[in-house]
Design a protein that fits this description.
This protein has 16 helices and 12 strands. The protein is of the alpha/beta class and 527 residues long. The chain folds into 2 domains: 245 residues, no CATH class; 263 residues, Nitrilase/N-carbamoyl-D-aminoacid amidohydrolase, CATH 3.60.110.10. A 6-stranded mixed sheet has the order 5-4-3-2-1-12. A 6-stranded mixed sheet has the order 6-7-8-9-10-11, covered by helices on one side. Strand 8, helix 15 and strand 9 form a beta-alpha-beta unit. Helix 7 runs antiparallel to helix 8 and helix 10 packs antiparallel against helix 11. 53% of the residues are buried.
Amino acid sequence: MGATASRWRDPGLWLLAAWGALVAALGFPPAGVWPMALLAPAPLWAAAVPSAPRQAAARGFAFGLGFYLSLIWWIVPTVVRYGGLPWVAGAACLVCLAAALAVYPAVVAAVCGWVGTRRPAGALLLAPLLWSGAEWARGVVFSGFPWGDLPQALWQVQPALDLAPWVGIEGVRLLVAGLAVAPAWLLLRLGGRRCSPLALVPAVLAAGCAVGLWLVPQPDTGPGTRIGVGVAQGNIDQARKWDPEYRRETLERYAQLSRRAMGDGTAGSPALLVWPETAMPFYAQDPGPLPGRVAELARELGVAVVFGAPAYERSADGVEYRNAVFLQGADGRRGGRYDKVHLVPFGEYVPLGRYLPFVKKLVQGAGDFTPGPEMLLLGGGGDVPRLGPLVCFEVIFPALARSHARRGTQLLTVVTNDGWFGHTPGPYQHLAFAAWRAAENRLPLVRAANTGVSAAFDRRGRLLHATELGTAAAFRVELDLPSGPPPPSVWLGPWLGPGCLVLAALGVFAILPALRRAPPELSETTP
């Protein structure tokens, strides 16, 4: 009991929680003071290395809790406004999610403390591997939630994006973590702790690898054709979106915006229009005047249209509802459909809902969807390139875009409805992932959002155009399509995360005999 009270009085807990909150608020979009992200783990590692494991874990948890509470606070107004929860319950949802995510830095800090009290240099050698492996696990365990990954803060730092086609976002994360060892080592020395310069090896290796990859020419996915793409951002009020009386008005707004994106119809007009997620609030697969109007508009403008709409599949067990993306050909004929594969837990479905019927979705305005069967490409015939559709949160998962890249997609199309976020940092944080999906796959990317931010990126992940949040807008952009094979990151990236965990485990196993022989230098109550 006394030890617990003493741990709560540890000033390191509060300082690290404040540091985590500051990094999240200023280092990540929209503030974008990205150097803070490069330094983010350093104070935690410096505090964990001389601490006993339980104290180090508490410090890691405090850092993570402060970080995630500050980063994803927009969850509260989302579940309150659209889920109908009281503010107290909404705040409880945020705290529970932040606490679950904070477990990952807590585990990393605990291992650093266990090793560091005996071998400080060994702990810093392992820290980048532990951090990178834990962040990979956070992106895949229990559906995954990689929001707040350090590279997310570097989405407009071109030297970082230029590393992505070689090693993917996982490799960039590892390099960033390696560089963070240097300030952690310096903090230890300034605090009067002895730590061998051998601990700086990860920082030296990370800097050397980064410079080496920058000097090598970018992996070439081959010069392809150039295509014009138009984007329509309807800015449809989420509260009115599913009102049957408002459907015709919604469709006509997108028709007007599409004409604006097409321009005067002369040379250079888009060959493809992209509308947001569930832009059409009706079952577009059914015959009727509203789906017919979409086909008529495609023929009128002479352009293929990619748009989101709900869909359904009938089976012996009943009806399954899907969050779908449709392709309407320029001739008015349907060109295919992709059903969202990775759904949002408690937003689009309830995990284990069959066994927990009393648990309800936090966002009641969204449908109760079933995931699609597989990743599918759209288009690939006539003037329409091979399109790799991603729906909303699917863009935050590298594996999904890589699946498209391996299948030979030429253009990533992200349709999303960020109206749930409101005017918060959420839409800007969400946008950052699109830059990484473009850069690591060397694919152009177009993003259509209902309320913003709609955007276009080139094959290096450079932002070409972005709309304002909360406005109706339309734009067109010219994009260079690839023609060659995907870059090395498509094959290497998936192995780096689990590989870091394996290497960290091997490192701990290698120094385990030394850890058993050496007594700990500090007690658990050491500040």
